[in-house]
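Q: Is it fine to ask for two folds in a single conversation?
A: Yes, each is treated on its own. Send the first.
Q: Here.
A: Result:
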Amino acid sequence: MQEVVPVDLGNCDREPIHLLGAIQPFGFLVALSSDWIVRRASANLAEFIGIDAEGALGAAAIELFGEDAVHLLRNRMTLLRGADAVERVFGVAIASGRRFDFALHVSGADIIVEGEPSDDVGVGDTASTIRAMIGRLDATDSLPAFFREGARQVRALTGFDRVMVYRFDGDGSGTVVAEAVRGGIGSFMDLRYPASDIPRQARALYLRTPFRIIADIEAAPSPILPPLDERGEPVDLSLSVLRSVSPIHVEYLSNMGVGASLSISIIVEGKLWGLFACHHYGPRRPGFERRSIAELFGQMFAFKLESRERKTMAAYEIAARAASDRLLAAIAGNAQLLDNPDYLGEMLATTIACDGVAIWLDGRVATSGRTPPPEAIPVIARRLNAMTPGHIFATDHLSGVLPQAEAWSDRGAGLLALPLSRTPRDYVMLFREERVRAVTWGGDPHKPATWGPNGARLSPRKSFEAWREEVRGRSEPFNEAELRVAEMLRASLIEVVLRLSDDAQEERRRAAERQELLIAELNHRVRNILSLIRGLVRQSRDPQADSETYMRMLEGRIEALARAHDQITQDNWSPAPLKRLIETEAAAYLGGRASRLQLTGEPALLSPQAFSTLALVLHELMTNSAKYGALSDNGTVAIEWHTDGMGDLLIEWRERGGPPVQAPTRQGFGTTIIQRSVPYDLGGRAAVRYALGGLEVDLLIPSRHVSIGADAGAPQHTLPAPDPRDTAVSDSTQTIDGVALLVEDSLIIAMDAEDILTSLGATRVVTANSVQQAMDELEREPVTVAVLDFNLGSETSLPVAAELARRGIPFVFATGYGEQLVLPDELEDRSVLQKPYTALNMRRMLADALGTAKA
């Protein structure tokens, strides 16, 4: 169909493309030295100029062409740019008066001048002709119509019987995608021709010289004399317009019944996309100028084709990039999506068409859609690992690189693999199903070889009858745009994976730092609390007080600290409301007398340090007032607070209506707390006056510990209604009548709680430090009520609670987690006792539980 350079099969990779040392006879050739002296000439020179080749050797170019023609040719030579540049000039009059069309190029040290008689039939206005041809191309609305119009334009310009648009595939074979043909000679449309019809060397030559004509396959070539130069080399006529025709190709055309051919290369983005292949069933030689216009049209056709393909591919790539951006954003926000093949398959299918997705990640396999079986994925991954790392891999014939793949070619004939890491590599694999199709070849594609003197040689096919073949084991190929998108997607996925890995590593580092900081802070606070408790124990000792009074005082101060701590932790160790502190302390300690407090002040928040300090001060003030002051009989206490001009908080305690006040004869620990805690711990001031009408205390909290008006949105804790059961501990009634079960995993805390339960009337307290032990105790004897510590080391007391509920035994939970404890739905109505245990709060909680059970 097209020219085949006769090269031995054994030398295909080594032999350079040279001409045969002869040209077609419809023109002449002269090889000139740099000073324009004739070094070689074609044997038919006398036919055109009147001087035989032997006589022309050594003559000056001016003797052959005349001064004016040489001057024009010299000027054209200056326009040559690039190694493969060719210049043309038309209708040049030489010394004999005849007009010739010339082509000039440089070959090694020679200047090659080729000439042929000018055609008297011109094309008129060349620019208008080209513009009209391109306009018709632009008017087409699809690529098939574009190809058909290109073939029609070339046939109209050259007059050949058949003009085909021939497109190369990736394997070197080609398909006729459009044709314009004279009636009555049949059609080659959609026929495919094997790669051996146009060998690799010939395709390389089509890139260098995009235009080629064979005017008459029967014409005898004209040799170039001398055939070899002084170095024994033939002239390289790769760029020659008139170069001779291979006998193999002449035989090929003859077998097709073709008398003349013309080919115009279609070069897109520097690659040989295809050809305009023109056949005539007799000799045919359009004029040089007309052929040059056809060559220019071929270049314009290629530019237009490239523009259309780029536009189509750009639209696809924009859509694909948008889809991939959404995919990558989703993965960046949720790394687990990389393990979700269904999601990846759905998203990737909108980017690159595929029938199934497999993920090979850390030696794990996940598949979605139509893919090879899971056990095949590691086999494919090992084969991919043996290839060049760091690049995508695509094939429409997986069994060609992995023979085992033939067993699953119906599901995975084509593969596009995106590596996501280095050795051992992880992959996202996109599979395409087998596309069984029948291909119509222009003759048997298995081109035979014959034996010659140098071994096996390519030989032309003799039959060009349509030959059908069923193609199996192949999928739809991945095109260039899909490969570009895949490469972009691979790079982005790797970036996301690396970022996720870095983020995970950074998060682990930060978590370790936070844990270390938390442990250090917890250690610091525990030590401070232990030191504070030790100080309270030591300083609360009073030689004049009995042990019961001492214990009651110590217990009250510890409870005050615990209540303050609970309120601070409710707000995540942030500033807490002053009013809430006063109300909570009054309700917890004063009981029914808390209603005789009068509170006045604007919303204010105290820092955790100030909150804890003031909790002890208020506890001592309320204790003293309940024992000796206004709250010991019918008096009242007014507490008012406001800020001064410096932003410091002033708190005024005023007792009225109580017994006459007398200054103490000695200063106890409680008085020391009132007078010295605020100045020492907070840097503020404290003033105590024993006025006759009642105790007066003024406290100043520095502004750095205070936020005024900041608790407007804080939870509002109103003063609870007086509870008639809230009396002094010594007045406690016998709340429990029977055996109490205590589930607590700390011995010291259990002993303290056991004493409280005994004081509340329990005949016996059964203790257990685990769920199993508690269950065993329940089996041994019946119990009246139970107190369950929620957290028991590595387990919870929920199974015990479930068993108690089944038996109808009242119980309460206990915890040190405060309000953060979340109970199951079926137990959310159960009471929760806050640690540390006190007789007051335990009595109230158990009374509620027992009362509910009796009701």
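Q: Second one now.
A: Result:
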Amino acid sequence: MTMLSKFEGDWPAISALLDEALNLSPTSRKAWLEGLIGEHAAHRETLRMLLAHQAEVETDDFLDTLPRLFPAEGPADTPLPFDGLLPGSSVGAYRLITEIGRGGMGTVWLAERADGLMNRRVALKLPRIVWGGSLAERMDREREILGTLEHEHIARLYDAGVDAQGRPFLAMEHVDGLPIDAYCRAHALSVRERVALLLQVMAAVGHAHSRLVVHRDLKPSNILVTPDGSVKLLDFGIAKLLEGDSTERTALTELSGRALTLDYASPEQIRGDPLGTPSDVYSMGVVAYEVLAGARPYRLKRGSAAELEEVIAAAEIPLASSIGSAAGAIGVTGSSGPSGTTGASGAGTPDASADRALRRQLRGDLDAILNHALKKSPTDRYPTMEAFAQDLRRWMDGEPVQARPDGLAYRMAKLVRRHRLPVTAGAIATLALIGGASVALWQAHQAGLQTQRAQAEAATARAVQGFLEGVFRANTADQADPAKARDTTARELLDRGADRINAELKDAPAARLRLLTVLASMYQDLGLNEREVDLQRQRLTVAREWHGPTSDEAVLAMTALANALALNTKRDEATALLKEATALLDARQDSTSPTRLQVEIGQASLNRRAEPVLAMAFAERALAIARRGDSKADLLLVLHILGDAALYDRSFERAQAAYAEAVQLCEANPPLGAGELSLLYEFLGHSQRALNRYAEAETSMRKGVEAEVARNANAVRVAETQTHLAIFLNLGGRFRDALTALAPAWRWSGTAPADLPQRRWVRMWQARALANYGQTQAALAVSSDDVAVLDKPHPVDGMDEQVLTDRALALTSLGRLAEAQTLLERQRQATPAGKPPGRLYSLALRRWQVASGQAREALAGLQAQRAARKVPPAPAASEPVTEQAESAWLELNAGHLEVAEAQARQALAAIVSRGNADYQRDNQAIATLVLGQALLRQRKAEAAAPLLRDAVRLHRQLYDPALSLALADAIEALAQTERALRNDAEANRLLEQVRAIRAAQRKPVELP
């Protein structure tokens, strides 16, 4: 007897319940089972058994789009790659927490990163299969491209890779929510509320389509709604690029299961035809049908591939209003059976009046919209997801929809519904008699214009879609050399498309213009500026020919070309183009249009560094226009440019205000500036630090790190942001904190490619922070393998001087003066004639001169440097505390004791008055030590003693107590004071500490 034969009599009811259960996530099924009541409760144990069996054989779809999978070889009972995992196990950089889903092809775990780089929980998808050898390369490529899908309604693909045991994994954003259909039932949402949720989904899918990514498996279980009513679309990170490749028929049956969800698959998916955006439009239509009507348009039997194709080709889709159920659409509890009928599930039979009300709402426009999205032929559907969404928005606004005929009566009815007024029936009749004819004529005219625009837009969309599918089909297996075709890179496909635009779209200028704009932007994203310039020139030519030389399209093309030229250091040509664009707008007295906004933005961006005052004027004008418009993206861009220009102009208050507003805008609209938020926080921190608001600056810098960690798993960018925070703390004398902040980036640098500039930068700051903290030997060990130290050929990146000068400083503090001098001389010779020495080189030279007994020369050098900046040789009380403290130290070593005392007191007073002592502890320690030493050398030991004790305390707080030579110097000065006060025992105890520190520092160290 088969498993199902014993349930034959109850099978229709069990089947309906089983369908409902299978639409839930595995973690939700248990609660669903326990919630069954009434006659359905009798089937609970049967369903539990069937679901347990299903969990052993069902096939997940989450690996459908990755490289071809190969079943593990060996007997059926051979352990599969991820079998036996337990909470706490590691997969790549992730630690497993708890299993949250399981299927025949794999498991899904709640996991967290365990490499220390960032703290984030993810949904980790683990296949129970062995993969082909090209997996790592393909996953890296798709991860980088799919990582660009930054949208508030798309759950991100954070990471994909292969662990040390060769096991593949995918790390997705973990979303806490219900499937969209279950959410609608649970919250008894109205039809309008459900349409609003569907529009969120369509916005996400449309965003992905604009990035040439197709989902291929839209269904309710992949669309979660969070408790706050926000949609999150899952599994976009494993969708394929829009590359037009065939889904072979064998994919339907390989691995003993199907890797697509048949009830939502498009006809072309079933047939194995090339897939494009219309396939997602169809699947979205099925989802919308189910969400609005409470049932799917049809259920497919699980038969052979030929049978499936026959069913989907022949199946007639009933109007949603003919099967809509109150249980499904307005929240009355119920479950839809295979035919769309509704069975009670604990709350009784759906109310008949509610069912009739639902049918009325679906009848007409919504029926037409759904029917249009579910056409069998891709060319008969909505050409884009945006077109589908636009019709739903028209329905929401009471406007005519494109899916309905443009009859006069239909449009008149829409007009009346949109403009209902509380007037009497007689007034309405009078209005109809008097104005009916004119309204009808006006509406007919508007309808004609709208139809023409819609037809033109549809034709352009079809041309763009056909062109893109033709370009990306070159990457499929349908070529003479399939292996070579599959190896085609994204850059090669982009080049191929750019080369074909003019030839293949010669007679479609609107489509050509749109594609030139899109592909130019993609070249900019890839950093291929010369190719971007080429396409922007072509765009300008087409815009002038098609729309006219003075049109908005031509002006916008001029602005885009100017921006590209500015990036390519062709400033003069960019300036000329922007002046021409400005003159065209001035001639028609256009000062507030969106086109004027783009020109003002271009002018501001072009001048923000070279002429920041001019750039600020342009940016202020752009800001006034942007505030009146609807584009938050434009407003964000203007604020960013204005902040940059103000920062370059040292207008720090204006910079802070602009950056702060930009940050608030990003925080209020997460998808808007996800890629810029950390940078905006960083620049906000710079402006706050310049305004002496150190605590606020630290908060901003730390939020920048948090934003970058939360945004994605790009380890390079995260390491950069962590290093910026460490630099801020290092400059604020917080050396131990700087090393803590830098620790994740330092760990990352141990595995990063040796030739990566960011790796070198991280290690340079690690060495500097170690040296400042007092671990000088460790600092030398960190920089010992730098290309500049090893004198290896390498690209110029501006770090050579810093690395070598840092080493000179470290060697000087260890007393290795000859080695330090060699490095300083090397830097002096490398400096171009006439160029003043860098700040760091000058500091290192002064330290070396003092250590070499040339303190007066060092002091003269500082004074000359200040004179060159046209400031007094001696720092004033209003100048940076760092300069005051160093000048006092040089005066002390030059023997000018009273001057040193006065300048040290000045520095200490400035620290107190400016209220930032927590960020000036190093300067406070230096100035206190100098003041104590100056008094001691003036034979004022009694006055010097408390100051030097305080200096030692400050040094112990700041520096490594076992290794810091700066601490040793402070202790030695205190020992001399104790001896002057005849406290010989205390002096000897202190000198023993000095000897221990210096002995420990002489020992070389090896880094892990």
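Q: Anything structural to flag on that second result?
A: Two points. The chain has a mean pLDDT of 77. Residues 425-472 form the longest helix (48 residues).
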